[in-house]
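Friendly challenge for the regulars: who can give me the structure tokens for this chain first? No prize, just bragging rights.
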Amino acid sequence: MAVHTSSAAEAAAPTTRRRILDEALNLFAQSGYGGASMRELARRVGIRESSLYNHFSGKAAILEAIVSEHGPASSASRLEEPRYEQLAGQPEAFCRQFARDLVEQWSDPREHQFQKVITAERNRVPGIRAKFADHFYAREQSMMTDYFRGFARAGLIMTPDPRETARLFAAGLIYIRLEHYVMGAAPSPRPKVNEAIDRYLAFFLSLIAAGADNNKKRKPKGENRGKAAPD
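First reply, four minutes later:
Bragging rights claimed.
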């Protein structure tokens, strides 16, 4: 029984590569990429400095690996998962799932550290800005556009431009992140964030709702005359 418990614990323990990336993210956030040393990283991980090179060719490779699994990279990877592919015919469910996953990501302390690192280092480390901004954002935007294009072709949403619709969807979520996780002294409570997400999704989904008869449902011109406009 004890052997089984030990094996289970070993299986659940993070790999050396995982520990290196986690400690590197902490170190880069605290000391900056330029101020972080491989020696200090090895000390934090609990291995010899030479052992780091069994997993990464150098500090730049570690930073690149961190960039590759956070921010737009993680969002793009999620969009390739079967659970998203199953929502290809359900625009409302797709949007709500994507927003929920983003809130989980935003609430992760590692994501806060990553944003601190990438903001400070993207202009200092050759290739990082291009890889982050061009490759990962382009990949995420392309995949989001494909989903909204599919919704439009199936008649599930109304939009003259799926790419701009995808960008509008993302822009609203980014603003919520700025308001509740970046600009304030402390992150907003989760219920408040969820409320903001739900309010935005209701608005966004109403903009793209399918149905060519939407115009027919509008009240005749002048019917609201004298009445206060809705909020």
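The radius of gyration is 23 Å. Residues 25 and 114 are 7 Å apart (CA to CA). Your move, everyone else.
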